[in-house]
Amino acid sequence: MKHWFTLLAISMITFMNTLDASIVNVAMPQLSRQLHVPMNQAEWLVSVYLVLICILLLFWGRLSDQIGSVRLFQAGSLYFLAGSLMCALSPNFWLLFTGRIVQAIGASMTMSTNFGLIAKLFPMTEHGRAFGLNSVIAQLGNISGPGLGGLLLGHLSWHWLFLINLPVGLIIYLYGRHVLPNDRQYLTPSIDWLGFASYAVTTASFFIAIYWGQAAGFATPGVLILMAIALGFLIGFIAIEHRVAQPMIRLSLFKAPRFSLGLISALMVYAVGYFANVALPFYFQETLAFSATRAGLILMLIPIANMIAAPVSGQFVDRFNPVSVSVIGLIIYAVPVLYLTWLPNPPIFWQLVLVLLALGVGNGTFQNNPMIMDAAPPEAQGVAGSIAALFRNLGMAVGLSLATTTLYWGMQRQVGRPVTHYPQGHPDWFLAGMRYSYWYAVGLIFFALILVGGLYWRQRRNET
């Protein structure tokens, strides 16, 4: 039983990490007004957090295999709490921006080690339930951000979005000091600095190009140059990892289909989750004129359904296998996403409630973490966990960018001119943009279904 409480503590840190990636979206208008910065600059608070996590995850994952994951996890918890306190007390934009950087450093340390810790704590026969619970709590942070943020902002200032981390995080840190195993290793860390540098340039160039392309257009010469730089450094990174004695990541891990396809499908599912984070808060508050509190309550249907579905599906994973369960989850997930491509105006409220519940059930039933971690050898659990966390955060970052870009494209198709904000007085424009945007989400879900379905048929063929 103690292991399950420890799992809950580890997962709650992940919850706060992913929550802080999504909850700030809801506060963008308030932050922009109170800190006297334009909306696009306020959005840096979201992007710097996600991008820096993506840059650092592999570094910490590799280091955890050398010095022990518990030390890094506990240190990361303290960094995250320090960053949260800085954000909560920030009187201006730049101090808030710095706090988000400190938060991201801490979050990347805990995210890169939590999967490895879980793999050490639980036997293989319990991985389905353990990773299932961790997955639901992590996804709860991702998809409950708009709902929880709306509820908080309906009654409190934006500072409370960060203050709520402090008591929970401190309790978890103190609990971890007493129950987490001592896995300290007295090895001299060997860091592939050239590989890390090339990977960091790849990631930074890619995301700067994405965010710049949203505003200036993806055919802009500067955006194309950055994309070329990202591609060049990615090729260089792969070449370096093949040649160095102690690479940042073992590329041989990707030879296992369950590992590599599990990662890609996870990226797509997390990206689809961000479509709701971007579009639905505006849809409820601006198009349907709901209060922030009412919108928050309705959006909480998604994480509530997720919270029920994921532990149940984790039980099925232990009895059957994660691939079969994930196929079912993706099929369920595709139904409400398809519905949102032709959402009626005005919506039928009970149908909308069912759609939000189905989004949570489909998301919670998708069980890729056991698929990924069980495909990695014991000595590579740390770096495998960091890669899994990397793809999860890449999914959130790509989802944020793709959802925003396609939403604007959809509105532009409707009115025949560029639109980069909510079209006040024209809710039908926004609804058209949201429907268009969700067609891209449908494409991601179906591509993920093809990948996981391929694993399922390969598995069936091997059994016969």
Automatic annotation (TrEMBL):
InterPro entries: MFS, MFS_dom, MFS_trans_sf. Residues 6-460 form the Major facilitator superfamily (MFS) profile domain. Keywords: Membrane, Transmembrane, Transmembrane helix, Transport. GO terms for cellular component: plasma membrane. It is found in: Cell membrane. SUPFAM superfamilies: MFS general substrate transporter (SSF103473). The chain crosses the membrane at residues 45-63, 75-95, 101-119, 131-152, 158-175, 196-212, 218-240, 261-284, 290-310, 322-342, 348-366, 387-409, 438-457. Gene3D superfamilies: MFS general substrate transporter like domains, Multidrug resistance protein D. PROSITE patterns: MFS. It is a multi-pass membrane protein. It holds the Pfam family MFS_1. The keyword Transport applies. It comes from the Bacteria. GO terms for molecular function: transmembrane transporter activity. This is Major facilitator superfamily permease. The lineage of its organism: Bacteria, Bacillati, Bacillota, Bacilli, Lactobacillales.
